[in-house]
Write a structure and sequence with these properties.
Largest sheet: none
Helix content: 55-70%
Radius of gyration: 19 Å
Distance between the termini: 30 Å
InterPro entries: DNA_glycosylase, Endonuclease-III-like_CS2, Endonuclease3_FeS-loop_motif, Endouclease-III_FeS-bd_BS, HhH-GPD_domain, HhH_base_excis_C, HhH_motif, Nth
Pfam families: HHH (PF00633), HhH-GPD (PF00730)
Structural class: mainly alpha
CATH topology of the largest domain: Endonuclease Iii, domain 2
Number of domains: 2
Region (Disordered): 212-231
EC number: 4.2.99.18
CATH architecture of the largest domain: Orthogonal Bundle
Low-confidence stretches: 224-231
Number of helices: 13
CATH class of the largest domain: Mainly Alpha
Number of strands: 0
Keywords: 4Fe-4S, DNA damage, DNA repair, DNA-binding, Endonuclease, Glycosidase, Hydrolase, Iron, Iron-sulfur, Lyase, Metal-binding, Nuclease
């Protein structure tokens, strides 16, 4: 089975498993989505949603985020990891939006990455979910699944993983594939204790087969520490 055939197999399986996979960050507009994704770095979507439930009631516009002292905004997102740095970036982002973009989130990927705290992954999430532009954002789940299934190499960078997925997946399927791979990694192929015994992709997963072999022989999983990732 070549790389393209394997990818097609993966797409069919994750499509059947998670046909309704979607962005789980709660938001009602591109600005809220950008803030939510910024907050989600090294933090679970569940925690972000708990924080934004009240945050998005208090702050609705870039002006709102600039109307309070930085310390107050820090307090509002204190439950989020790296909250001080993220609070500072939110205010810098809000200021730049007002100065250069009329207070609106830009639609172009290149412009999005100019915003403080917005990297390639965040920009991919925003353009695909807010503006309908096909994109594959490689978060910790997508990276882990891609490497476990052999779609990417273990030492590939996040950008290399993204490029390989973009090459193997039809462009019109990029966004839904991104969501389905996240759901597969979050709810099935977890960082710790992946569901290898009941995995429908075990046949194409060299690592999963080795895990099962190790489990059957009582051999310790030598890759366990290496393959465990946060998120």
């Amino acid at each position: 089975m070549n790389a393209k055939e394997k990818m097609n197999r993966v797409l069919r399986v994750v499509g059947d498993m998670f046909p309704d996979a979607h962005c789980e960050l709660h938001h009602s507009n591109p600005f809220e989505l950008t803030i939510a994704v910024l907050l989600s770095a090294q933090c679970t979507d569940e925690t972000v949603n708990k924080v934004t439930a009240t945050l998005f009631q208090k702050y609705r516009t870039p002006e709102d985020y600039l109307s309070v002292p930085l310390e107050e905004l820090e307090g509002d997102i204190r439950r989020i990891g790296l909250f001080r740095n993220k609070a500072a970036n939110i205010q810098k982002l809000s200021r730049l939006l007002l100065e250069d973009y009329g207070g609106e989130i830009p639609r172009e990927h290149e412009e999005l990455t100019k915003l403080p705290g917005v990297g390639r992954k965040t920009a991919n999430v925003v353009v695909s979910n807010a503006f309908g532009v096909p994109a594959i954002a490689v978060d910790t789940h997508v990276e882990r699944v891609s490497k476990r299934l052999g779609i990417a190499k273990a030492d590939d960078s996040v950008l290399e993983v993204e490029k390989k997925l973009m090459k193997l997946v039809p462009r019109e399927l990029w966004t839904e594939t991104h969501h389905r791979l996240i759901f597969f990694g979050r709810y099935h192929c977890k960082a710790q204790n992946p569901a290898c015994p009941v995995c429908p992709l075990l046949e194409v997963c060299k690592e999963g087969k080795q895990r099962m072999k190790n489990a059957a022989t009582g051999k310790p999983d030598s890759k366990k520490k290496k393959l465990t990732s946060k998120g």
